[in-house]
Specification:
This protein has a five-stranded antiparallel beta sheet. The longest helix is centred in the middle third of the chain and has 13 residues. The termini are far apart. The protein is of the alpha+beta class and 91 residues long. The protein has one domain. A hairpin with a 4-residue loop joins β4 and β5. The protein contains two helices and five strands; from the N terminus they run ββαβββα.
Length: 91
């Protein structure tokens, strides 16, 4: 089965943060289904998130979590992406 890179945005009090995850699924539609299921429980303390287009809101819309993109990838490419994202290059 192919791997997919899932990009999720989290907005809290106007602060935007991105999260990246690797999902293995039979196709993009299944990867989207898994990502939405994951996002439904993104905030453990809120047992009743409100579903919105491509995501959920938590704590009476104080936190918005959205699926930004899904791209087919490989585990090696995903590791390279994360390494680039989290490396400070001082050269």
């Amino acid at each position: 089965m192919p791997d997919y890179r899932v990009k999720i945005s989290e907005t809290t009090d106007g602060d935007l943060e991105y999260h990246h995850y690797l999902v293995t699924a039979k196709d993009e539609a299944e990867a989207r289904k898994y990502a939405m299921k994951f996002m439904e429980r993104f905030i453990d303390d809120d047992n009743d998130p409100e579903i919105i287009e491509n995501g959920y809101t938590f704590y009476n819309k104080a936190v918005v979590v959205r699926l930004e993109s899904i791209k087919e990838t490989t585990k090696d490419k995903f590791k390279e992406f994360l390494l680039k994202l989290h490396t400070i290059n001082m050269r």
